[in-house]
Amino acid sequence: MKIAPSLLSADFSRIADQIALVESAGADYLHLDVMDGRFVPNITWGPKIVGDLRKLSPLCFDVHLMIVEPERYVDEFREAGADIITFHLEATSHAQRLLTYIRSFGAKAGIALCPQTPVAMLDDLIDDLDLLLVMSVNPGFGGQSYIPNSEKKVREARALIDARNPRCELEIDGGIGRKNIADVVRAGVDVVVMGSSIFGAAEPAGELQQLRALGTPVAGALR
Ligand code: DX5
Ligand code: ZN
What we know:
Elements: E1 2-5, H1 15-24, E2 29-35, H2 47-54, E3 60-66, H3 74-80, E4 84-88, H4 95-104, E5 108-113, E6 131-135, H5 150-164, E7 169-173, H6 181-187, E8 191-194, H7 196-199, H8 204-215
Parallel strand pairs: 1-8, 2-3, 3-4, 4-5, 5-6, 6-7, 7-8
The structure holds D-xylitol-5-phosphate and zinc ion.
């Protein structure tokens, strides 16, 4: 299991410290949520901020684009230092073209699915995916409640990946913490994004390690 702390819930007045904390605690990726106020009802940051953060950490930058027409911005996010670029299937008309384009410049390409979008929509795209992101909340905000149907989607996504493209990583994002991390890992996720449960904790580094311990013993056990 990989852990990807989401900076959405970090304190940006001391962002260098916050990144150093999760890095020292063994974070695998840094998850960066880009929101445009159109695809989702919230606004975060653009390529300039991602580029500045890039100077603070060598961790894999897992950039989650929650923006309309993501094809207009992928070059800029790559130049800013994104390692993985994930866009929403619901936000573009030509997903296969965009996946191919992202991979053509050496980044990893991911697709995110909102809670209402079935895994079956990826049937003709799975070969071109490096990462499949199952949203377990409606995208836009940190600290929301986990949608229980997500576990069924994770199992479906796991089956699709195992059958058709085993090197694709399966990521989950939204409402994950102590009470459900073991369940989602057991259902088959490889990468767990967590914002409020890490950065909302009194000691984010210790909490990340606790969460890893809770998720690790079951990893792969019931696949
Ligand atoms: C929500 C974002 C998430 C967010 C998750 O739209 O994509 O990455 O930070 O926050 P938590 O873990 O608090 O649900
Ligand atoms: Zn996210």
